[in-house]
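User: I'm putting together a small comparison set for a docking exercise, and I want a reference complex before I start. The sequence is below, and the ligand is (5S)-5-amino-3-OXO-hexanoic acid. Could you produce the 3D structure with the ligand included, as structure tokens?
Assistant: Of course. I'll restate your input first, then give the structure tokens for the complex.
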Amino acid sequence: MRTLDNAIVTCAVTGAIHVPTMSPYLPITPDKIVEEAVVAADAGASIVHLHVRDPETGEPTSDLELFRSVAERVKDRCDAVIQLTTGGAPTMSVEERTAVVPELEPEMASCNMGSINFGLYPILDAFDEFEYEWETEYLEGSRDLIFPNTFESLEKIIPMFQSYGTMPELEVYDVGHLYNAKHFVDRGILETPIHIQFVMGIHGGISADHDHLLHLVDTAEKLFGDDFSYSVIGAGRMQMALGTTAVNMGGNARVGLEDSLYIRKGELAESNAQQVEKMVELTREVSGRDVASPEEGRSFLGLKGQDNVAF
Ligand code: KMH
Ligand code: ZN
């Protein structure tokens, strides 16, 4: 495994899992997404992972002009690596959600390594009423929805990343997705070293347990030897716990309101930066590592630099 002296903390500012009813702090408008990303970077996030939302309804969208406007403004105000989602929302087509790569040529973008059930419907049990009509439909619809990332679509997407100089961050939701990555490495389609994001705790993927993280890392070691690095998302209440374990083991951590709305059990986080500050402090207190700067992150991951993006 490749490890950096300092740990990379990524902040995922807003995503497709949470609906506006769930938290008054969820950033929805472009202004708020930009502000949250910049403050998270100031708090120590060297990578910001960005999705965009319809500013009127808060619905996840793949609008390229919104992506451009948010990415441009974040770039103007901080030097964090801007990592755009190509996961979008499970309801979008693969073409729609990956269009950010040719359009904006980011330094880095997510690349989801397999198809899964993506069950958001348990959230329905937690609320009596939702602010927007789409929220109930969206969550209910996830009962019968597959997040498609087929071999054929990955055969097209991975070379597209390479032609625009965009480093794919491989989103691995279960052990089998590591074998999918290995398959593309063996065929010469995916270049090494790879950077993996273990996404744990999605209803449909592997659960957010420490023993599963150890197994994922061991399996990646077996398949890729020294040719991979990793970060961990513990979706929901395991965010800080799994992030801390990952940085203790020489990996990296992702926090942010995209994957957990809480700062601790029962207490909503007031901002993305609050979660970043906590992860930074945990990293320093328990792992003996410091937190990587954006430049350290870039050099470790071999990124092309902010001057070479198309926004
Ligand atoms: N929010 C994560 C569960 C992506 O944007 O491509 C998944 C994610 C994927 O961040
Ligand atoms: Zn995302």
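Residues 12, 15, 49, 51, 85, 87, 110, 258 surround zinc ion (ligand 2) (CB under 6 Å). The first helix runs from residue 30 to 42.
User: Thanks, that's exactly what I needed.
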